[in-house]
């Protein structure tokens, strides 16, 4: 039986507006999701939380957070 990845909250602020989402690590892939979209990337040198914030910022700038 495969264990469900643990989800963590992540947030960022752009122009005074707070954006929130969830992130989790599946193998070597970090996934960020919001109610309006999601992004994933391969884990690299950054700690997962910092990478999740970068992805959430991208989603917010695309209007998906």
Describe it for me?
- The chain has 65 residues and is an alpha+beta fold.
- It contains one helix and four strands.
- The mean pLDDT is 93.
- The termini are far apart.
- The longest helix is centred in the last third of the chain and has 14 residues, at 48-61.
Quickly count the domains: 1
H/E element order: EEEEH
* Tally of DSSP helical segments: 1
User: Considering DSSP H and I runs of 4 or more, what fraction of the residues is helical?
Assistant: 10-25%
Q: What portion of residues belong to β-strands?
A: 35-45%
Distance between the termini: 32 Å
Low-confidence stretches: none
As a whole number of angstroms, the C-alpha radius of gyration is 12 Å
Mean pLDDT: 93
- Number of DSSP strands? 4
Shape: globular
Q: Order of strands across the widest beta sheet?
A: 1-2-3-4
Task: Please state the oligomeric state of the protein chains shown.
Answer: single chain
Sheet of most strands:
4 strands, antiparallel
Structural class: alpha+beta
Topology:
Layout: E1 8-14, E2 17-26, E3 29-34, E4 37-42, H1 48-61
Antiparallel strand pairs: 1-2, 2-3, 3-4
